[in-house]
Every structure is written in structure tokens, then in C-alpha cells.
Fold this sequence. Notes:
This protein is of the alpha/beta class. The chain has helices spanning 30-42, 59-62, 71-77, 103-107, 111-122, 138-146, 158-173, 196-203, 215-223, 227-230, 235-247, and strands spanning 4-7, 12-13, 18-22, 48-51, 88-89, 95-97, 128-131, 149-154, 181-186, 207-211, 250-251, 261-263. The chain has one domain (12-248): P-loop containing nucleotide triphosphate hydrolases (Rossmann fold), CATH 3.40.50.300. α8 links the parallel β9 and β10 (207-211). α1 (30-42) packs across α11 (235-247), α3 (71-77) packs across α5 (111-122) and α5 (111-122) runs parallel beside α6. The protein is globular. The N and C termini lie close together (10 Å). The relative contact order is 0.23. Residues 30-31, 53, 58 line the site of magnesium ion.
Amino acid sequence: MPRRRNPVGDTTxxxxxxxxxxxxxxxxxxxxxxxxxAVALSRRxxxxxxxxxxxxxxxxxxxxxxxxxRLDDLVDQRTHRDxxxxxxxxxxxxxxxxxxxxxxxxxxxxxxxVFAVVDQLLLLGRPVVLDTAGGISDFSLGALDRATRVVLVxxxxxxxxxxxxxxxxxxxxxxxxxxxxDLLVNRSDSxxxxxxxDVEQAVGRxxxxxxxxxxxLAAGMNSGSPVTESSPRSPIxxxxxxYADQLLDLTVGANPATNREVVR
Length: 264
Ligand SMILES: Nc1ncnc2c1ncn2[C@@H]1O[C@H](COP(=O)(O)OP(=O)(O)OP(=O)(O)O)[C@@H](O)[C@H]1O
Ligand SMILES: [Mg+2]
């Protein structure tokens, strides 16, 4: 499949976002959101996704990657090679930096050296999605430090809401900018006692995007093809695309004929 480059015509991109996808509670959908969002961003402009779930990262499965180099390789070779040349190409135009293959290799990684690599990638001036692990690790805090937008993934269950509140409280204590936080309610339609409105009220902010429980998202994870890649016209993919376009501050001109992507 050919890769896409920046759009042409009267479509303009106003912002190059660095997006940290976080949720202290595990299994809430961070990697599902990260992979779908990164592919949606890449439909507009070549983007990068970095798996900062260093011990058990699964972006590589979400995107069916077989990386030649991983995060630990980039850390090891940082002084000899430009990290930007060691990313793995996804067919959609997304460049992927996968987590180490095994937790022992990940254990060797320090946050300073990992973020030295991440910071070099940020200098490329491309949209970057940072997938993170559960908990509030130094890797997650480093991602939050660098983010121009934080996607806080929250389910409609009490533990998820409480974890989200604790993360926001931690960010407040660390004097981080809470205005950068967008609440994403995942499995928004699961009828388990809390509504989206309940979550919004408890977390103290409106949901900027809601994603329903849908088999296509789980199937996409299992097949290694996010919905934004396999079914770009589906309502869920459209929701991710609309949010990605919002992050890019994308404006589309009046003439749709010129609003197309260059294929290389
Ligand atoms: N809206 C959804 N509908 C259906 N399945 C979903 C949805 N969101 C996530 N899933 C599924 O739930 C599982 C956990 O999701 P995911 O791996 O994205 O969570 P995570 O927050 O990244 O987990 P971890 O904390 O382990 O990194 C996956 O199998 C995924 O496909
Ligand atoms: Mg994950």
C-alpha cells in the first residue's frame, strides 16, 4: 500500500500535536486509542507513535509491526545514529517506535535516556502519539511533560474514574497544565451503572470524545489493523478522524476536489 504525505490543495494544518494517551488504570483502552488516533493523524500528515509502555508495550501487535529497531536499540545507538532513521514504517504513513522485546531489556532503560530519544523525535516536527502504561510511572510523567495535548482515557466504571481523578490530582500537584487534558470516555455505552454524564461530573470535565464498546475495536487489536485503517468510513473511525483533525487544527477549504492526499 502506498504511503500518504501531507495533504495538498486548500487543506491546512494549524498545529503539530504531541499527544500523550494516559490512564492510570490498566486495560482502559490506551493502546486502542493511541493506535487508532495515530493512524487517523497519519491520514493527514506523516506521524509517529512511540510505545512508552516499556515493559509490556503492545503497539506492535495493534499495528502488526515487525520492527527492525526498538526503543532500546535507539537508546543504545543514539550517539551514532539519528533516531528518526530507525523508526519502523507502517503502510499508512505512520512511523512506529516499538517497546523493547522483553521486560529485562526494558529494565535497563532509564527515563533520561529514553526521553533523550523522544526529544530528538519531537524535533522532527511531526505529530507524535505517546502510548503509555497503566499506573503513574516516570515514563508517563515524562510523556505528560512533553504533551501539547493529553488524552485521558476513562471507562464507565468506578475504579477507572477514581484512577482518572488521582492522575488529575497528581498533575495538579506537579503544576502541570490541566487545560491540556481531553477526557475520552471509552466503552461509553456499556450499561454498567455509570453514564458518560456521571463520568464527566466525577472527573470534572466534559468528554471531548466518546468511543462505544464495539467488537471492531477488539478485532482490530487482534488482527493488527486499527479501525481507522480497516474501516475508515465507519462511525468509530470517523470519530477518531474528527478528533485527529481537531488536534491538527485542520481546516478544509470549500473545494473538496483539491482536498486530497498526495500518494507516494
Ligand atoms: N471500545 C472498545 N470496544 C471493544 N473493545 C475494546 C474497546 N477499547 C478497548 N478494547 C479492548 O480492550 C482490551 C484492552 O484495551 P487496550 O489494550 O487498548 O488497553 P490499555 O489501556 O492499553 O491496556 P494496558 O493498561 O494493559 O496498556 C483490548 O483487547 C482492546 O481491544
Ligand atoms: Mg496498552
